[in-house]
Each structure stands twice: as structure tokens, then as C-alpha cells.
Amino acid sequence: MIHTAPRRAAALVGALFAALLLVLTGCSTGGDGKGSSAGTHRPSASASRPSGGTTAPGWAKGLPTVPAGRLPAEAQHTLKLIDAGGPFPYPKDGTVFGNYEKRLPSEPRGYYHEYTVDTPGARNRGARRLITGKHHEFFYTDDHYKNFKAVLR
Questions:
Q1: Region entry Disordered: which residue ranges (predicted)?
Q2: pTM reported for the whole predicted model
Q3: Catalytic one of 41, 114, 136, 137
Q4: Is 135 a catalytic residue?
Q5: Based on CB atoms within 10 Å of each CB, which residue in 1, 17, 60, 133 is the most buried?
């Protein structure tokens, strides 16, 4: 048949496109294809959950882990704000986190964004933060970037 080659080519292109979508969204840590806007980054609520509940995801790169439900109530509240896309109480929420301390996996500038976790009794933003990665990774610090835990969602 003369028309078989174009059909096979179209099927191959479709299969390659589907595989690319699977790699970019289905096999990531929950990417939904949404970018950042107005200088803030708002990750999706669809971050994947590790199977078995005890295995750290590959993106944790050896960091200690903490289930989201074991974070302080204020951090859980900040996670809900991130999932909802705001509104955020602090102007610096959603801004680029530079990872200058090099305690998170090395990534290009703009990969990480930070959000304030309220600290009861603090007069300022306090020391607690949630850091998000471009592929919906979440990290928690309660000592102003000295130590991080990968948040399992």
C-alpha cells in the first residue's frame, strides 16, 4: 500500500510525543506544566507520593526526609498556600532562592523558590522556610538554611 509509510510516520511521531509527555509529566515529581508568573513560583498540589512511604525520592539526594503531615502546623499551612497559589503573607514569598549555602542539590539559578513558614513569637519572618524546586520538590528548614529535610507529600 502506498499510504502505509505516512501512517507509520504519523504513528511514530505520536508515540514519541506521548513518550516525551510521559517523561516530562508522568515520571517527574508531579509536573503540571505550569510556569511561574509575576516573579513568583507556585508549584502544583499534585506532587507525587513515594511508594511504600519510607523510600526517599531520588530528588532528595541523601537529605533526611519528613512526611508533610509531621511538619509543624505553620509549615502545613504554608504548603496549603503554595498549593493554592497564594495569597502569601510576605512579599518575599515565591522569590528565587539562591541556594548559596549549597545545602540543596545544585541546580541553575531560578530553580528554587522560597516561602516563609510563620514562627510563633518571632518579630520578623523567623528562621523557618519551605523551598520548592522546579519539578515540585519540597524542602523544609527550621534553622534559616543550615539544614534541610526533603518533604514527602
A1: 31-64
A2: 0.66
A3: 114
A4: no
A5: 133
